[in-house]
Model the fold of this input.
Amino acid sequence: MRKRPNGHLLFTQQFFRHPRQIGSIIPSSAFLERRVIAAADIATAKCVVELGPGTGGMTQAMLDAMAPDARLLSIEINPLFHEQVSRIDDERLIPHLGSATDIRAIADAHGLGLPDAIVSGIPFSTMDQAIGSQILKEVADVLADTGRFVAYQFNPRVGSLGRQFLGTPQIAMEFLNIPPMRVFRWAKASA
Done:
């Protein structure tokens, strides 16, 4: 198991500077990481896209669960978080500074195919509804035919926003996280 980036202080500082971009005051717990990895079926995915990796805790957990030949494209809008994630030493990881509204263009620029799984920690509850809808439409358009989209959120807003593009999600709760998180899962084949 690789060393995880130590970004708790950075995460908290960035939360107070950009509370609309960051969904929690502290990074995800190991319990939440395991639940998200299982929901997205990361172990079988060949191409994974992560939206909003923060300081890289979930990123490293996914890398630990991924196959040796899989790829992980991590898209982060915050330059300090991007720099932190870029320090993870794993050749399967492609850290990208950019917006989740451009998933297809970013994946194409890195020579990746359609993702089998997209995992999102970005807070849909605090972003403009038009941008949230644009991201979810992009997710639906770019996801492989049997792909999974998993969003972990403390607020249920992504569930209603996502219905238009992905159908009705499965929802689970992870109480062993601060704050407790809802884990929304859509499987494209059933949308």
Remarks:
- The helical segments are 8-17, 30-40, 57-65, 79-86, 103-109, 129-142, 157-166.
- The chain has a mean pLDDT of 89.
